[in-house]
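Q: I'm teaching a short session on how sequence maps to structure, and I want students to see two examples side by side rather than one. Could you give me a first protein with its sequence written out and its structure tokens following it? Keep the formatting plain so it prints cleanly on a handout.
A: Of course. Example one:
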Amino acid sequence: MSPTQGLAQQPLNSFLEADAARADDELNRVYGLLVAALAKNPKGTTALRSAQRAWLVFRDAEVKAAGEAFGEGTGRRQVEAGTLGRLLQERNAWLLLALAGKSALGSGKERAAADAQLNALWKTHEGTSRGPQRAWLAWRDAEVAFWSVYRGESTKDAVLTRLTWERCRALSGG
């Protein structure tokens, strides 16, 4: 049974908002550890900060679009808090990969398939999520730049592929 199953709207909103706050605290902790780990790598630190700033813009645009797509009503806070929590957890996973010194998993060979699927999904979302799409592209580019500086140029295709597949999953509701 889900911890939120059977909850009325207000307690459900509170649960999801508290969950997002915990994920945000964890993100701040992991980000701080990664910045400290990059202390002797100024280019890596700069690239990480650029990627994080771009991710914050994407996060805010995505949460706003999710709420607007839901419309007005009692469930809007739930949708926004749930979206925020998911995004924070996904970002934590990326930062933990970097902190562990692991390259982003994903095959550069899959990149064309991922791009084709993402383009098809964006066509179905056209008009409803243009702002988040642009923000995601800016974050994706900044994230790839960070990984290229941090783990080497050879990680570029793998990072692009993984980010693209993750975006496909998010846009298809999975």
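Q: Perfect. Now a second example for contrast.
A: Example two:
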Amino acid sequence: MSEAHYFIGIPLSPTLQQSLSSIQNEIAPYVSYKKWTNHQDFHITLTFLGGVAENKVEELRDRMSHLRQVRSAFSLPLKGVGTFGERDQPRVLWAGVEKVEALVQLYTDVSEECERAGYPKERRSYSPHITLAKKWKGDQQLHKPLEEVVEFEETYFVDHFSLFRIHPNRNPMYEEVEKFKLEEEA
């Protein structure tokens, strides 16, 4: 049996999930994507782990539990929509996440703990976002700038992060395995 895949990320509240789902509906007539993210799967990735042996999951839990004692909850500005990839046929549609210091510190700590546990370090620079859709389909091109279609600006209070298991053939496909509550703001 192959190993299940996992990642560590910040889950979003049902209210924010609904807000982002509304944005998907507003943008859908202007874009052509094969896969729209289920609103229950919206999250902000901290680190992707890939395949994790069942006996290593407990070690990850222990390492992340330690982090929650040294990091505080924080407010996270969310703003705008954008894309990754080619301008006319972008591969990913995302909602913006401001790269505030508290988020960068949490990302760095999580990444370092995962690296100590034997998981490879991410080579790309950290670009926090919330994936709304991916895999452009067909020959249709994006003609209208997304900022003309929808405006998005919210502040989200991050009081925990989580270990998620990926179930590729389910919808929603991300299962929150463990929550790691952050210290209260000072």
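Q: What should students look for in example two?
A: Point them to this: The mean pLDDT is 88. Also worth mentioning: The helical segments are 14-27, 54-67, 101-116, 146-149.
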